[in-house]
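Reopening: Ribosomal RNA small subunit methyltransferase A still failing for me.
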Amino acid sequence: MELPKKFFRKYNFRPLKYLGQNFLIDKNVLQKIIQAADLKKDDIVLEIGPGLGILTKELAEKAGKVIAVEKDKRMIEILKENIGDVENVRVVKNDILKTNHLPLITNHYKVVANIPYYITSPIIRMFLESKNPPKQIVLLIQKEVAQRICAQPPKMNLLAVSVQFYAEPKIINYVSQKSFWPRPKVDSAIIKISQICTNLPQISRIRFFKTVKAGFSAPRKQLINNLSKGLKKNKAEIKKILLDCGFNLKARPGDLSVEDWVELVTKIK
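Support: Ran it again with your exact input. Result attached.
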């Protein structure tokens, strides 16, 4: 694998820290991402932040079409040089969070990307809540965030509930900070999010997330107090609902699974 330094020296500029530009230089990690994506020749892949195109070229070999959305205009020239005349790659210069390219993808598609850490939550939320969600998401993200997303009771958190409401997340592999240039300060993880919107609870999303956010308003405090305060309901009423659900009155928000939250919301009037 050619080192990113070569291309940056040629074009006389450096990675932008504020854009979270850390480029993958480990071929073994690259192959693990490709394997996790389980690509077929009829797959359409949306890649976010292709950078130098190292992952892009591998995606193009396995998938039918790759749409690579790059925010940094400086990277476009390097990207196009690096991938060469690959016919099934379309490069789009734009910020994925500030534009709506999803309608361009009319068929089922997959998202595969090494994304900047700072946009992890907004990116995942955008795709999971989309009217045209991908059938699968494979991302290289910060290790700690991946662990939070995949958490289970009693360590559930707002991010975990928000993702697991829509899909099934799974950590595929952990990745050392040594696998990147420039080297980030933390390790990463490959996360796979599948079964997206295939088994959504039959419940109002607005009511569900209003209740969950109230519950996690003070994660270390007891759920009965958070819900009473956040939903402006009498504590006795919340107590009865918790007992009806079979929950411990001393339970904290992290003790509840997504299924528990769904049951709770259905009983709150």
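The mean pLDDT is 91. If you still see a failure, please send the error message rather than a screenshot.
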